[in-house]
Amino acid sequence: MPKEQLRYDRMVETALRGVVREALSEVAERGLPGNHHFYVTFRSGYPGVDIPSYLAAQYPNEMTIVLQFQYYGLELHDDHFEVTLSFNNVHERLVIPFGAITTFADPSVNFALQFQPVVPAESAEISAIPPRPTVAERKDEAKPSDSDDEPKRGEVVTLDAFRKK
Question: What angle do CA 109, 115, 116 make, to 5 degrees?
Answer without folding.
Answer: 170
